[in-house]
Amino acid sequence: MSDSMLKKEFKRKDVERLRNLVKGKYGNKTTTGIGYQGSQQQDHEEGDIWEEKGKTWTIKDGIKENITKLDNLKKVAIPLFCPQCKQVMDKQLDPFYYKSFGECVECRTVTETQLKIKGKWDEYVNKTFNSEVNQQIEYYQDYMESVISQGIEGYVSENGEVQKWVGGVDKKRAKKAMKENIKNLKNEKK
Fold first, then answer.
1. Which of 97, 104, 121, 165 could join 116 via S-S bond, C-beta 3.0 to 4.6 A?
2. Taking the CA of residue 85 as centre, how many other CA atoms within 13 Å lie in the half-sphere pointing to its CB?
3. Distance between CA 102 and CA 106 in Å, rounded?
């Protein structure tokens, strides 16, 4: 019977802890601590930017994030979960749909089905097509204006030979052609 006797002696803090547990006071301390408390943590809200320990921080969508030089890569990265339905994005087309629409294939299917049910599908398709035409017009206009303003006098071929061109670009004719092409592109809108 002496083998089953408890050979350990309880310290005062152990007894206090057991008393607190029996009384239901789970959070009460049994010892007192002394030391450096540190600075108080500040509360920050959505969009705040602050510096802490040499790093810059912000809060986006309720989550504290470190601001780095690689933040642009975060936009390219595909999240593990769809922001709409919170399901794992593991289907083959999910990355492409996320980059285009910001949601997984399943959520996009639901969105497009709802548009069709409400009778707004044709309006959506026309709006999307027109925005693509506007984007093409903008790209074309920027390209043509850069070509016209350069004043091409020579050209370096793939072999590295410098070719001198005579005559250059007829700027009036180029601008007229550009305006006609833009007009034709605008006529393609639905």
1. 121
2. 14
3. 12
What is the rounded CA–CA span in Å between residue 113 and residue 82?
18
Instruction: Judge whether 29 and 19 are in contact, CB under 8 Å.
Output: no
Question: How far is 97 from 91, CA to CA, in rounded Å?
Answer: 10
Give the Cα separation of 91 and 86 in Å (integer): 14
What is the separation, in whole angstroms, between the first and last Cα of the chain?
96
Residue identified by tokens 């990265």 is 77
DSSP three-state, residue 71:
helix
Tell which residue, 114, 113, 79, has the closest CA to residue 97: 79
Question: Radius of gyration over alpha carbons of the chain, in Å?
Answer: 34
Joined together, the tokens standing for residue 134 give 């506007």
Spatial separation of the C-alpha atoms in residues 18 and 26, rounded to whole Å: 10
Q: Tens digit of pLDDT for each residue in 84-139?
A: 999 998 889 999 999 889 899 999 999 999 999 999 999 999 999 999 999 999 99
Q: Biggest alpha carbon distance in the chain? A: 115
Give domain limits for the chain.
Answer: 79-119, 120-150+169-190
